[in-house]
Amino acid sequence: MEDLGRLLTAIVTPFDENGEVDYSQAKQLAQALLESGSQGIVVSGTTGESPTLTTEEKLRLFAEVKSVAGHGVVANTGSYSTRASIELTREAERVGVDAVLVVVPYYNRPTQDGLYQHFRSIAQSTHLPCILYNVPSRTVTSLSAETVIRLSQIDNIMGIKEASGNLEQVARVIQGAKKGFRVYSGNDSDTLPILSLGGYGVISVASHLVGRQISRMIDSFLGARTEEAAQIHRNLLPLINALFVLSNPIPVKYALNYVGFPVGKPRLPLTEPDEQSKNIIGEALKKHSIDLPLRAPK
Q1: Rounded to an integer, what distance in angstroms lies between the CA atom of residue 105 and that of residue 216?
Q2: Residue 242: predicted pLDDT
Q3: Domain 7-286 belongs to what topology?
């Protein structure tokens, strides 16, 4: 199973002034992220505004990011439809991505057995490594630890992005899953606690801005420099909190525009931040060094 790295960024989708996907800027951003600490890129996830992207836009984004990243490109192909998820996964495999991220089905609220069969069916439809994505704050339904452990026995289900905030569940998964199954933090604020339980890394939003610092925190922890890792974690928490003052990706898109890396506005139904939220994000940015190399659009 290919090593995708410990720090993956869930990349935003840049839009131009007409609200169309800016593929050139998406490639520039992917390159900038890889130059500032990220080892891989998750495309068209929650942060990438997947619900408002067409299938054609997603597939082109997968291809464009892959063309600059080389490896470590993870395509979000999951939805509330097993059949549609399989179709998009197969298309993503043809494009040449390195792995897929598959979210817990939202809205239709399946049982745990339904979740098992959903993820098994997708994994069996592809040769690609699959990363489960548990984010009950958005999907309502949560993958139980028992279901994750069961799914971990499927050869190409390589790990999970855990955004439940439930550290007890994370611990149970790490304890019971097959050897080599990788648990990625899905919340930036949980990265160090999950590492301390035996987790593997993070699929991050904050790494758009502070990727080198997050990478240094991970390396410090793995190198048994726990106080150094804890200090970095504590220093980053105010910025992390500011980046989630509103629904992701509203704050991080504003932050990128603020620091000088244009990514446009979110697509409706997401809107730009209110003035109070802008002030919170701006003040946090002023107090932190930014790792992202800044480039104007071509």
Answers
A1: 34
A2: 98
A3: TIM Barrel (3.20.20)
Written as six digits, the tokens of 92 are: 């993503």
Quote the distance between the C-alpha of residue 175 and its chain's center.
23
Strand partners for 159: 131, 182
Please tell me the number of Cα atoms within 13 Å of 7 on its side-chain side.
23
Q: For residue 52, with 0-12 CB atoms within 10 Å meaning exposed, 13-18 middle and 19 or more buried, which class applies?
A: middle
Q: Which helix (H) or strand (E) holds 99?
A: strand 99-103
Q: Which residues contact 133 (CB under 8 A, 6 or more apart)?
A: 45, 76, 78, 101, 102, 103, 104, 160, 161, 163, 186
Closest to 158 (Cα-Cα) out of 178, 139, 143: 178
Active site residues: 133, 161
Please indicate, yes or no, whether the overall pTM of this predicted structure exceeds 0.90: yes
Position 160 scores a pLDDT of: 98
What tokens does 29 get? 């951003």
Report, as ranges of residue numbers, the positions in the chain whose pLDDT lies below 70.
1, 295-298
Through-space distance between the first and last CA atoms of the chain, rounded to whole angstroms: 37
pLDDT tens track for 191-249 = 999 999 999 999 999 999 999 999 999 999 999 999 999 999 999 999 999 999 999 99
